[in-house]
Amino acid sequence: MGAILLFSLICGFLFFKAQEKQQHTSVESNLLSIARLKASQIADWRMERLSDAEIIMGRIGLVDSIKRYFSYPTEQERAQIFRRLRSVKKWYNFEDILVVNLEKQVVLSLGSDVGLCPEHAQVLDDALKQRRPLWTPLHSTHDYLFPHASVIVPLLDDKGSRNPIGALVLVSDAAQFLYPLIQSWPIPSDTAETLLVRQDGTDVLFLNDLRHQKDTALKLRIPLSRKDLPAAKVVKGTTGIVKGKDYRGVEVIAAILPVPDSPWFMVSKVDASEAFAEWHFRSIIILVFILGMMVLIVATGLLIWQRNLKTHFKERYQAAVTLNKALNLHRITLHSIGDAVITTDDKGHVELMNPVAETLTGWHQWEAKGKDLNKIFHIIDEKTRQPIDDPVEKVLKEKKVVELTNHTLLINKDGREFPILDSGAPIIMDDGQIAGVVLVFQDDSRRRESQKIIKENEKKYRSLIEYSSDHIFMLNLEGIYITSNDRIDAFDIQSGKNLVGKSLKEVYEPSVALFYQSKLNQVVTQETPVDFEHEMNTPTGLLYHHDTLYPIYRDDQLWAIGGICRDITEQRRLEKEHVELQQKLHQSQKMEAIGTLAGGIAHDFNNILSSILGFSQLALEKVEKNTELEDDLQEILTAGNRARDLVKQILTFARKSEEKTKPLQPGIIIKEISKFLRSSIPTSIEIRQTIHSDSFIMGNPTQIHQILMNLCTNAAHAMEDHGGVLELSIQDLFFDPGSKKETVDLKPGDYIQIKVSDTGTGIPDKIINSIFDPYFTTKKPGEGTGMGLSVVHGIVETYGGKITADSTPGKGSTFTIYLPITKKRHLDHVYKPEELPAGSEKILYVDDEAAIAKMGKRMLEQIGYSIETRTDSLDALELFRSKPNDFDLVITDMTMPRMTGDVLASEVMGIRPDIPVILCTGFSKKIFDESTTDIGIKAIVNKPFKKAKLAKTIRMVLDEAKSENMTVKKSRNRVKN
Question: What whole-number distance in Å separates Cα of residue 361 and Cα of residue 372?
């Protein structure tokens, strides 16, 4: 009993220590994983910024522009540099970019006027000397409101010497990436915190704001002499898990390590009281459990001891009573039993052997009598092949029945081996003296073989049942579970794994249990298998099961019901998804067909608009101002611009281009539409407008016009038989989580609310949820395609807004649109002639549309250029091939018969590589900035274009071509010299 108590106490103590170690290891592992993850992410971010800087450093065009600006600063060059720097800033997400000369003066800045701070100046010398991008320390200055770190990028002259000509300072806002990364913690915690620190002289400088102490970034310093501060330890070179006190003086456990390739160090910490709070509670429970186990062991030991004592006295009494009978029947029994029996005297000499013993040992009793047992009964260990201790000595020594060694082999007289099961017992006389030993053994070969087969079969079938993904079980005829595998958890049944002994009513809800019982009764009655499916409502959702019940017989009698339950919920879900995907595929194919049609008409429509807009501009330049004719031409130009925007919208719908948005006032468009509707719908329909908003939204005028016209046209169609009232209203609203948010899924903020109401026939309830689906329409064939409200819905969603529909059949409908208000303001102006950049160069203008070629010739000749036009691309190529040096520029349309514009451009540049080419296009999916740059095209002008746009593009391309030619000539002269 004492040994058991001691053993239990030791086990309890070891278990307690193991649990304590496991808790500590878990906390330390989590902290270390978080620290490593964040340090790796910060290192990756720094490396990515340096990689971006090296890409920017290799942009020869930018370096050349800055070099030219340093030598001869012009507004044109300055604008060119700013355009490129803004592109870099937007693409790589920098907060600011400074251009610095070799005298450490800030020449240009995308932000406000700033100077070069000491941190920038200190790193600038190293970056110029090493000719590679370098990081500055994380710091803050009065020029920026935020802590920032910058990359100094040296600008190297790509002409010969590769000497530095200046540098770029790429400023990154720490609040954009670094601080959110540091301050996030992946698991809930009240005290956990991540710190980024570095050494600052004899202090530790904290680089980010702290969770428990605000406004500390780059301000809080603690001396390195604080030996218990984790941040001081990591700066001095310690890494891994440490314990100590943080900046508040609170005991913490922390993971500390350096951030790779940086002067920074990472500290991930949590208060020790929080980290081990759960362990303190668990330790109390464990101690109570161990104490209870000790008490239980003592009580159980006392009961067992008392019971064994009673059994012992009972056995002794029984042995005394039966001893005489056993002796009298000894010989008869010895020869009758099926096991082998050998008896010996107290010296271990054989006295008797029954026939089974003779067969197994190979010795007859008459020849074995008087011989030593070890010679007759030769046994060895089956595994070690070593002799086994003399069984007689063992029995005589222990003076009781003993089981001899397992894995025993008997080697008989002929050398054959038999696996045996054996035991020995003393022969006790009436006076209590031991007269000898009786050995009982049997051939274990058959039992072993059958046991082996049974175990293999049992293992095989148990594996099939236990590892099956199905729930396999057995019920008695009353519906009580007899057996069940552990797969019951997968079916979310409330009773858990232990189903044995429970009825169907205890396992399933009443309706399912009743259904299951009916199927069980069917198997009992018909004694045939039954397959069926059923549903189950569970806390995790609706489950679908497929069950099979089958009869199980014993002694030709129906004994139990076997069952297999399979979860087919996922199968049902996949079947449903397959149907939905098929529907989406059909819908996508319809939309693709519309997109293809929309893209196909864009080119021809833009050519028509090019003529309308171009000749309108030419006429406006010549017409007398402030006349009715000028007003008419302005209306034509306005309508043409609307049509141009509509084509852009068609291309956007066809997924071929992106639609630009700008600030606009929906109230103005509503006034315009009200005037237009009055002249286009029956007078039996009254139009009312209520405008209480002059706010702006970000949108496209054509699209807003299309939205309102579509809704108003539908409203007028609903009232065309009996007339009614069409009302348009607009007002400003503010949404917050406590108001409209419950019915309209909008983010909190300021919105414009536009309502289009009618008193027409209304929309039936059964179709109102489908009105925004593509191709859904209630109109007769030929009256509509069903795309109107679908397009309206798509535009509104694109603008970040929502559209809702309310209708009462017989009374009318109301469509409500919510669009976010913008603070930006912008006003459109009518066309006014402007001073355009002129020139005297000779240009070859190619377009297969004669009207567009004529318009282009007249436009460009008005500003001084000499124009030669062709309407056939092959004719144009022959003209250029005959006189390649007569032209300074080629302007060509993209889509032309016989030879497209990009092919024509390649051909003329193959004849004369330095000829600049401008490509014009109404629509072509082949046009991409990268591909046109690769073949040498200098610019792309989208049709329909304005005269000012074309003139400025031509001047820019010609000036750049001249600059490049001068650079090439200077290089050639230097080579000759």
Answer: 14
Contacts of 878 (CB under 8 A, 6+ apart): none
How many whole angstroms separate alpha carbon 913 and alpha carbon 902? 14
Q: Which residue has the higher pLDDT, 689 or 218?
A: 689
The model carries a pTM of 0.34
Do the beta carbons of residue 135 and residue 174 sit within 8 Å? Answer: no
Q: Which residues contact 583 (CB under 8 A, 6 or more apart)?
A: none
Residue with tokens 């060509």: 892
Tokens of residue 794, six digits: 């798509």
**H helices within 117-177, ranges in order?**
118-130
Residue 734 sits at φ, ψ, to 5 deg, of -120, 125
Question: What pLDDT does residue 846 have?
Answer: 93
φ/ψ of 185, rounded to 5, equals -135, 130
Among 769, 771, 691, which residue's Cα sits nearest to residue 732?
Answer: 691
Residue 698: CB partners within 8 Å, gap ≥ 6? Answer: 661, 662, 663, 799, 820, 822, 824
Q: What is the mean pLDDT of residues 438-466?
A: 75
Half-sphere exposure of 792 (CA within 13 A, CB side): 25
Give per-residue pLDDT as tens, 911-920. Answer: 998 899 999 8
Pairing of β 203-206 and β 221-223:
antiparallel
* Span 391-430, pLDDT tens digits: 777 877 777 877 766 678 888 878 888 788 777 788 887 7
CA distance 275 to 614: 75
> Where are the extended beta strands (E) located within 122-277?
134-135, 148-156, 164-173, 193-200, 203-206, 221-223, 240-245, 251-258, 265-271
pLDDT digits (tens, 9 = 90+) for 104-129: 888 888 876 777 888 888 888 888 88
The residue type of 45 is: W
- Residue 432 three-state SS: coil
For residue range 562-616, what is the model confidence (pLDDT) as tens digits? Answer: 888 888 888 888 888 887 777 666 655 665 666 556 666 666 677 777 778 777 7
In degrees and rounded to multiples of 5, residue 923 shows phi and psi of -175, 130
- Say yes or no to pLDDT of 693 above 80: yes
Confidence of residue 881 (pLDDT cuts 50, 70, 90): very high
Amino acid at 923: F
As a whole number of angstroms, the distance between CA 732 and CA 753 comes to 6
Burial 72-108 (b: 16+ CB within 10 A, else e): eeeeebeebbbebbeebbeebebbbbbbbbeeeebbb
Contact between 553 and 559 (Cβ < 8 Å): yes
- Is 726 exposed, middle or buried, given 0-12, 13-18 or 19+ CB atoms closer than 10 A? buried
d(CA 272, CA 250): 8
Cβ partners under 8 Å of residue 425, min gap 6: 395, 400, 401, 402, 437, 438, 440
In the chain, count H helices and then E strands: 26, 35
- Kindly report, residue by residue over 377-396, the tens digit of the pLDDT: 878 887 888 888 777 778 77
Nearest CA-CA partner of 757 in 806, 802, 790: 806
Q: Are 254 and 233 in contact (CB under 8 A)?
A: no
Closest-CA residue to 134 (of 193, 60, 58, 47): 47
Cα–Cα separations (whole angstroms), residue 422 to 322, 653, 754: 23, 92, 100
Relative to beta strand 340-345, strand 203-206 is: unpaired
Alpha-carbon span 709 to 172, nearest angstrom: 47
Residue 259 DSSP code: P
Q: What is the largest CA-CA distance in the chain?
A: 152
Pick the closest to residue 830 from 688, 631, 669 (CA basis). 631
Q: How many CB atoms lie within 10 A of CB 949?
A: 13
Q: Which residue has the tokens 């948010």?
A: 741
Nearest to 339 by CA among 410, 428, 439: 439
Q: Would you say 191 and 166 are in contact if contact means Cβ atoms under 8 Å apart?
A: no
